[in-house]
């Protein structure tokens, strides 16, 4: 069994939405108020007397190139929305990339902690600590009865979104996926694509999170998502086992073909990579291929458009990117010790 159920769960994320008392929400605040929010958050973290003050790096959206901002999105360190806010968007990101504090997104603060595998409780503990540190110097907009006040009513209360990013190739191949996702939606969970709201589920990867933030404690919300994640993990594992038992040749053929293309292609779009990667990841978990899934997951981040251009250090048009992507994937796949 893989550590933290990584055969199915790529990562766990906790994010907290917070606003500062007496400053209007980002949608209606002035530029000066936006600046003030940044100053307060900087002081709360970088000016604190804790080890955290030395571990965070600041990123001001307006000072970053489009590729740099896009790369942060591709690494899940900031949201697509924040990357587009070149007026007063700002982020503090921990040097090990596990914690990001997004400033002037939909709310003044979005604190997120992402860890590999199924580790929602650990992510919560970390996000909670950062939240407490900020609260030492900042007064949050908080109502005794309702809880934390947020820009969008769906986040009011605890302001928490707990999510898991899951890889579900076998449920997809066997056609059980729509039933599973429908039942998940029916019990009040949101199902999103790999880059969050409004994005596609590329590579059979889905993000499942809570919709409700009010009337339940943070721990209860986390327990619910964890419970759903555990059920999905066991359904996916069962589907993988059944599939491999009943259609051994077909699965080996599918995995082998995907690996063949990934190791020999000359031109490859992100979408094609994601489809093939899903089969190779499945093949690795089933033991058909001797490939480390941690390395596949790193490769999946590296081949995204902005990250690829950062790796090559040049700006590339879409076709050039497809050529370089194929070149990069082939070099990494064939580097056996590395993959
Ligand atoms: N479990 C996860 N692992 C890695 N990244 C995640 C995970 N869940 C969400 N993300 C990333 O966080 C970013 C924001 O996602 P999303 O829009 O779903 O969340 P949100 O900011 O909490 O939502 P909202 O603004 O709707 O309240 C996206 O880039 C998404 O890929």
Automatic annotation (TrEMBL):
Keywords: Allosteric enzyme, ATP-binding, Kinase, Nucleotide-binding, Transferase. It catalyses: L-arginyl-[protein] + ATP = N(omega)-phospho-L-arginyl-[protein] + ADP + H(+). Residues 8-239 form the Phosphagen kinase C-terminal domain. A motif (RDXXRA motif of the pArg binding pocket involved in allosteric regulation) lies at residues 321-326. The keyword Isomerase does not apply. Its EC number is 2.7.14.1. ATP binds at residues 11-15, 76, 110, 161-165, 192-197. Appears to be allosterically activated by the binding of pArg-containing polypeptides to the pArg-binding pocket localized in the C-terminal domain of McsB. PROSITE patterns: PHOSPHAGEN_KINASE (PS00112), PHOSPHAGEN_KINASE_C (PS51510). It holds the Pfam family ATP-gua_Ptrans. GO terms for biological process: phosphocreatine biosynthetic process. GO terms for molecular function: ATP binding; creatine kinase activity; protein arginine kinase activity. One of its GO terms (cellular component) is extracellular space. InterPro entries: Arg_Kinase, ATP-guanido_PTrfase, ATP-guanido_PTrfase_AS, ATP-guanido_PTrfase_cat, Gln_synth/guanido_kin_cat_dom. Catalyzes the specific phosphorylation of arginine residues in proteins. PANTHER family: ARGININE KINASE 1-RELATED, ARGININE OR CREATINE KINASE. Belongs to the ATP:guanido phosphotransferase family. HAMAP family: Prot_Arg_kinase. This is Protein-arginine kinase.
């Amino acid at each position: 069994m893989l550590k933290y159920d990584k055969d199915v769960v790529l990562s766990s994320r906790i994010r907290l939405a917070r606003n500062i008392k007496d400053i209007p929400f980002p949608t209606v605040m002035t530029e000066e108020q936006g600046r003030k929010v940044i100053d307060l958050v900087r002081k709360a973290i970088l000016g604190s007397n804790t080890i955290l003050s030395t571990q965070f790096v600041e990123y001001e959206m307006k000072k970053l190139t489009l590729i740099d901002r896009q790369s942060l999105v591709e690494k899940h360190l900031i949201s697509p929305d924040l990357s587009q806010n070149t007026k007063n968007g700002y982020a503090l990101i921990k040097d090990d990339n596990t914690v990001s504090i997004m400033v002037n997104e939909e709310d003044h603060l979005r604190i997120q902690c992402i860890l590999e595998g199924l580790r929602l409780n650990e992510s919560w503990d970390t996000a909670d600590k950062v939240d407490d540190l900020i609260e030492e110097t900042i007064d949050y907009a908080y109502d005794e009865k309702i809880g934390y006040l947020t820009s969008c009513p769906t986040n009011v209360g605890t302001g928490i979104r707990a999510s898991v990013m899951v890889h579900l190739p076998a449920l997809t191949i066997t056609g059980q996926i729509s039933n599973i996702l429908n039942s998940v939606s029916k019990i009040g969970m949101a199902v999103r694509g790999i880059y969050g709201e409004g994005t596609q589920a590329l590579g059979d990867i889905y993000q499942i999170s809570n919709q409700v933030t009010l009337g339940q404690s943070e721990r209860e919300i986390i327990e619910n998502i964890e419970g759903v994640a555990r059920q999905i993990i066991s359904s996916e594992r069962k589907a993988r086992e059944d599939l491999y038992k009943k259609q051994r040749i077909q699965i080996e053929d599918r995995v082998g073909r995907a690996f063949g293309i990934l190791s020999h292609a000359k031109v490859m779009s992100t979408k094609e990579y994601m489809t093939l990667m899903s089969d190779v990841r499945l093949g690795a978990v089933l033991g058909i291929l001797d490939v480390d899934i941690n390395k596949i997951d790193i490769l999946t981040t590296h081949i995204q458009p902005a990250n690829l251009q950062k790796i090559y250090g040049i700006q590339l048009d879409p076709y050039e990117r497809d050529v370089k992507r194929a070149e990069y994937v082939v070099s990494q796949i064939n580097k056996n010790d590395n993959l």
